[in-house]
Amino acid sequence: MDADTNNTVLREGFLVKRGHFVPNWKARWFVLKPDKLLYYKYEGGRRDSCQRGKIPLKDCVLTCPYLEYENRPLVFKLQTANGVGHFLEACSREERDEWAADITAAGHKLHTSDGGKVTNQQEPASPRLHNIDLSKVLDSMYDVHSGIKMSSHVEQGSTYSNCFSGSAVVDWLVFIQLAGTRVDAVTLASALQEEGFLQPVGIRSVEALRTAGFSQQFMDDSTALYGFSDSLKKRGSVKAETSMSAVELSGQVVKRGYLLKQGHRRKNWKVRLFVLRSEPAFLHYYDPTKDELSPAGGFSLRSCLVSSLNDNGVPSGVSGNIQGNLFKIITQGDTHYFIQAPTNQEKMDWIDAIREQT
């Protein structure tokens, strides 16, 4: 491989990687080259120049999605020719699939003497869909701690309480790995509806049940509403969430991605998974190294101010050896959040997306 090709960067960005010796998860900066995948560590607010690892692509086998990690449905596996497995997690389904496609394409373009290539193995769509116990799925959905959360929704001027959207059901089924894909999740949700465990709520979902074929009766849609059947509600297991945290997390996900955030107390920089939601507009951030489902923090975007910071010098309030691409969010309560994006384009995309919600 010549020097020019070796310097070519096909893709780069944050992924969360499982350690080989200590099986913990760490955020690393990955750089895809035509023949290898390199990864680096961020020290404070800057990517270090020391390469922390290299994954050769020749004769690799890529498995996407890789469904063996509970609470981590966005993992893909890259196994090298000598049998070493690398487990990598993206920030979204789209990012995961794009990384997998680019790695596969790079493998196919390798010009080696023996024609080495990456093989992209798709997991079976959802092996647990066969002979699945729908009553156990229902029990999991109905669990007060880890089940699907119910709240109030408005459709065409009418308010419906103790319900959830079709897309929320699909998200939940994929997230807990009862379904490998959204298509499989819709099939599973349709079966729950067919058995009378779930019932349509509101105009859209009722109309779909009345007019569509079986495969289209359950809608993967944030505006199609569903609830548990009336007989199940008498169990008393699930209580509608009325806390502010439940309201915060009920909005539609507008954007998600890995960003660096400066801590309020120690002023250190950490990679966090940011999730932007609308109606209500909230920005939450999660620690991607942990399996916990709850946000590490978040705030309402109502009356927030978001602004780009100049990369020339270190702005007031910012600490550390920063990389750049900074922006600041000031909340209604005058809390200042300093955030770094990996690129200037991503910074501007986030600023635009946040401003649309303020």
Descriptive notes:
By secondary structure, this protein is α+β, with helices and mostly antiparallel strands. The chain folds into three domains: 3-121, Pleckstrin-homology domain (PH domain)/Phosphotyrosine-binding domain (PTB) (PH-domain like, Roll), CATH 2.30.29; 128-242, Winged helix-like DNA-binding domain superfamily/Winged helix DNA-binding domain (Arc Repressor Mutant, subunit A); 245-355, Roll (PH-domain like), CATH 2.30.29.30. Helix content is 24%, strand content 32%. It contains ten helices and 19 strands. The strands form three sheets. It has an eight-stranded mixed beta sheet with strand order 4-3-2-1-7-6-5-8, covered by helices on one side. It has a seven-stranded antiparallel beta sheet with strand order 16-15-14-13-19-18-17, with helices on one face. Strand 1 and strand 2 (25-32) form a beta hairpin. It is globular, with a radius of gyration of 22 Å. The termini are far apart. Mean pLDDT is 82; it is low at 123-130 and 234-243.
